[in-house]
Amino acid sequence: MATSSPTPGQWLAGARPRTLPAALAPVLAGSGVAAYADGFVWWKALLALVVSLALQVAVNYANDYSDGIRGTDADRVGPMRLVGSGVATPAVVKRAAFLAFGVAGVAGVALAATTAWWLVAVGVVCVLAAWYYTGGSRPYGYLGLGEVMVFVFFGLVAVLGTTYVQTGTWEWPALWAAIGIGALACAILVVNNLRDIPTDTESGKRTLAVLIGDRATRLLYAALLLVAAAAVVAVAAATTWWVLVGLLFLLPAAPGLRAVLGGATGPALVPVLQTTGTGELAWAALVGVALAVCG
Q1: Which domains are seen in the chain, by residue range?
Q2: Residue closest to 45 by CA, chosen among 29, 62, 61, 67
Q3: Which of 79, 122, 211, 282 has the fewest Cβ atoms nearer than 10 Å?
Q4: Please, what sign has the CA dihedral across residues 45, 162, 178, 124?
Q5: pLDDT mean across residues, the chain
Q6: What is the pLDDT of residues 233-263, one digit of tens each?
Q7: Among 144, 142, 146, CA closest to 203
């Protein structure tokens, strides 16, 4: 049982900083497309970044809370969980999640007020999806749907939304960029769930990795990196071939791919979260800069 307030370092660990590139990357990629279309608006890009980062932190704390009260984090292999480790009470972590949702909501309303009010509805759906990933009586993260929702919200919605709030138009390159970013965001979750197959199986948490098994999960990870590479080519074909520099994302991602295909398990998979996140960030930065410079 928690007996004291978490330290700043523990709060940071609970926010899962290795996952934050998944929030930064879609804003970089979407803003790059906006710049290529001569529609880049720096303050809207900044607000989109606040929304994305706040939602990522919120879903991490919400996941910490929900898994903690269910006991699925009791024997966790990966980074510390605030509730599961007893460092913080469930109520404190739940409040932190709601605070992060609030920050995302304020920034989101500001974007909607200056773009289109229907974006508020999109924001509400994003918050509900974040909470019910592991929250509620039937969390979809326990039904093998986590990767699908990550692809939709941290890929399609995040990238397309970032571009739209700046340009106010549909841009096909944003769709290809969203697919690439979504694939890499999914890869981060796939590694996380691959690592947790033994404990998730024991606790009854039916992630996609638990449902399809160890070998298929490793192949899925490799396939997602391949999709991300193909997406670079698709963006380049729709804009400028300078975007092919984005294929260099495979360099930081390669060690993680070797570890996954080499059969790494447990703690040996923890660094793969970082290499995959770095790969996603490199994808977004390289593609985004190439689009901005050539736009």
Answers
A1: 18-294 (1.10.600)
A2: 29
A3: 211
A4: positive
A5: 92
A6: 999 999 999 999 999 999 999 999 999 999 9
A7: 142
Distance, CA of 18 to CA of 292 (rounded, Å): 26
Amino acid in the structure at residue 293? V
DSSP, collapsed to helix, strand or coil, labels residue 143 as strand
Which tokens belong to 206? 């039916």
Give pLDDT tens digits for 127-156.
999 999 888 778 888 888 999 999 999 999
Interval 177-219: pLDDT, tens: 999 999 999 999 999 999 999 988 887 889 999 999 999 999 9
Sign of CA dihedral 81, 82, 83, 87: positive
The tokens of 210 are what?
Answer: 């638990």
